[in-house]
Design goal:
Elements: H1 2-19, H2 28-38, H3 44-48, E1 52-54, E2 57-60, H4 69-76, E3 81-86, H5 93-106, E4 111-115, H6 116-119, H7 131-150, E5 154-158, H8 164-173, E6 179-185, H9 188-194, H10 199-204, E7 226-229, H11 240-253, H12 262-265
Length: 268
């Protein structure tokens, strides 16, 4: 009876942890680390094999594959990561992301761009631009980019992602060092003057509601890993190739273009 009660309490603890957003990952290392603060070690084996609830999903459990992230990164000779390009519409996020993808491919590195407009053609086509939909938009692409990074992919995410809290939640979901925030810094006036899609003009005319920078806020990153000064008030744009080159140098200098050392991989 004591064993049953203890196991029941363990499962309840797992469910509560899941509600708080804690990762349910049943590698022996993760279980050992997590359970040392939450569950009695003697009951962890039983709890780990028990289905549990995460959010609105019931009777699920984490299934660990037999190919480790270290092995995938070894195959690619690179470190998986997420470069999160954020900035106003018209700031050049996608242009620089695709330029960087091409530069990485030329160096034999596997990268992929997840573009905000492209994702709304499929995965997020049922979302609009309300605050709640914007939050869900970023949550979904954050989870997708996390999977890409864990596969060893250098993942280039190009989303306006106007709310700081949404971006921070994505960062918290990824392993330390996996999230590289790239702030495309540019004055609003320059974006309006460029207006490649005519969206600013439409927003000023009241034809588009909730447009970032006009009647919906853009919250600048406080401490981005990279801040690219796309343009100053004079409207002179920095060349995409130059910005992509600067980001490429960052990846090189921080070890993303080769697989991580064995000692570091063991901690992932």
């Amino acid at each position: 009876e004591n064993s049953i009660a203890t196991t029941a309490r363990s499962v309840m603890a797992l469910r509560e942890a899941a509600k708080r957003g804690m990762k349910a990952c049943w590698t022996s290392k993760a279980c050992e680390t997590w359970s040392s603060n939450v569950l009695p070690a003697s009951t962890m084996r039983t709890a780990a094999s028990t289905a549990y609830t995460v959010g609105d999903s019931t009777n699920i459990k984490w299934h660990e594959g037999s190919v480790s992230r270290e092995e995938r990164e070894k195959l690619l000779d690179q470190r998986g990561c997420v470069l999160w390009f954020t900035g106003l519409s018209g700031s050049g996020k996608s242009t620089v992301a695709y330029t960087l993808e091409h530069a990485l491919a030329e160096r034999g590195k596997l990268a992929y761009v997840l573009d905000g407009d492209n994702i709304r053609h499929g995965l997020n086509q049922n979302l609009g631009f309300t605050a709640a939909d914007r939050e869900e938009n970023i949550r979904r692409i954050g989870e997708v980019s996390k999977l890409f990074a864990e596969s060893g992919m250098i993942t280039l995410v190009s989303f306006i992602s106007p709310y700081r809290a949404d971006r921070d939640r994505v960062r918290q979901r990824l392993a330390p060092g996996d999230f590289v925030e790239v702030y495309m810094k540019i004055p609003l006036e320059v974006c309006e003057s460029r207006d490649p899609k005519g969206l600013y003009k439409a927003a000023r005319a009241g034809k588009i509601k909730g447009f970032t920078g006009i009647d919906d806020p853009y919250e600048e990153p406080l401490q981005p890993e990279l801040a690219m000064e796309v343009s100053k008030a004079d409207g002179v744009m920095k060349a995409p190739e130059k910005m992509a080159g600067d980001i490429l140098a960052y990846l090189e200098n921080n070890g993303y273009l080769q697989r991580r050392p064995s000692s570091e991989a063991a901690a992932v």
